[in-house]
Amino acid sequence: AMAQAALGAAGLHFDELNKLRVLEPEVAAQTAQLREECRAFVDKTAEFQKIVGSLIELVDQLAKAAESEKMKAIGARNLLKSIAKQREAQEQQLQALIAENKMQLERYRIEYETLCKIEADQNEFIDQFIFQK
């Protein structure tokens, strides 16, 4: 016990297997426990990083998918706009055609009325001519 105390004073200790150690057995046990806790902490940190990495990857994929859908939507909207413009242009062409045909119809109506008047005048002239004989 006295030799153990002298060794202890010199900073040397015997462990449970009676091997000579520089650290006190209790400090050595705490160190080993801390080492294990550190190892477990490092493992958990690595696992956490892996989870975060896969989460980031997933978010990236979702962002790409969202961007792709956004581009599709923009394309569809532009297509609809161009179709609407085409329809508008077609409608204007048809309106112009209708107006043109209405004017033509009016010309034909006036021409018809004129011809009817001429026919009536000619019939009257023929009737007068026949009655004069």
Q: Can you put this structure into words, describing what you see?
A:
This protein has one domain (1-132). A hairpin with a 5-residue loop joins strand 1 (13-14) and strand 2 (20-21). The protein is rod-shaped, with a radius of gyration of 54 Å. The chain has helices at 2-9, 25-132; strands at 13-14, 20-21. It has 133 residues and is mainly alpha-helical. The protein starts with a helix and ends with a helix. It is built from two helices and two strands, in the order αββα. Strands 1-2 form a two-stranded antiparallel ribbon. One of its GO terms (biological process) is protein localization to cilium. This is IFT20 protein.
Number of helices: 2
Strand order of the largest sheet: 1-2
Q: Say how many strands there are.
A: 2
How far apart the termini lie comes to 175 Å
Uncertain spans: none
Principal-axes geometry comes out as rod-shaped
Q: Please outline the major beta sheet.
A: 2 strands, antiparallel
Q: How large is the share of residues in beta strands?
A: under 5%
> How do the SSEs run, as a string of H and E?
HEEH
Query: Quick check: average pLDDT?
Result: 90
Secondary structure: elements and pairs:
Elements: H1 2-9, E1 13-14, E2 20-21, H2 25-132
Antiparallel strand pairs: 1-2
Coiled coil: 80-111
GO biological process, one term: cilium assembly
Subcellular location: Cell projection, Cilium
